[in-house]
């Protein structure tokens, strides 16, 4: 297909496609003349992936480029690739080499999870816990378990298919899955809150109400 058809199929403007080509985010089509090239379904899929990351996920193009690079040229170590992918996702927390991340370390040790200060998610967790504490919200082992236990089960189910994949496919799956499934987890949590409140299964206790607050 010509670039105009590629644009129509992918819903990406021609000018944007040309930008992606210049930036190396999209491979060039097969040249059929000095001024014309043919594009295939792989180009449509690539443009839709970029759109999913940049428009739906809302990532800056520089971060999209980082994720695409991990997919195109996977690292030998899947754990290192996952760490790079997490670093490309919000919230963007600049790691502090002088920070021991005491909040994150305490939470991870309580859960029996590995504490690796170089992993971007550790700095993200430290920042998130600090924000919760600053707002005066509860943060203790019971709260840690409330959030961590279901997430560990979700993570176990997510990584289960990796065992039957090649290293390259496993890295692509892990990197893209991390980037694109997280918004679904957040949306489902919010919708579950809405459902529980809207159906009266949970009711906030009014001032002066001696009830327990549970429907």
UniProtKB/TrEMBL annotation:
Gene Ontology MF annotations: DNA binding; DNA-binding transcription factor activity
Family matches, as InterPro entries: DNA-bd_dom_put_sf, MerR-type_HTH_dom, MerR_fam
Pfam families documented for this protein: MerR_1
Keyword DNA-binding on entry: yes
Domain HTH merR-type: 1-70
This protein's record includes keyword DNA-binding: yes
Gene3D superfamilies to which the protein is assigned, alphabetical: 1.10.1660.10
Keyword field: DNA-binding
PANTHER family with a match to the protein in the record: HTH-TYPE TRANSCRIPTIONAL REGULATOR ADHR (PTHR30204:SF98), REDOX-CYCLING DRUG-SENSING TRANSCRIPTIONAL ACTIVATOR SOXR (PTHR30204)
The protein, known as: MerR family transcriptional regulator
Source species of the chain: Microbacterium ulmi
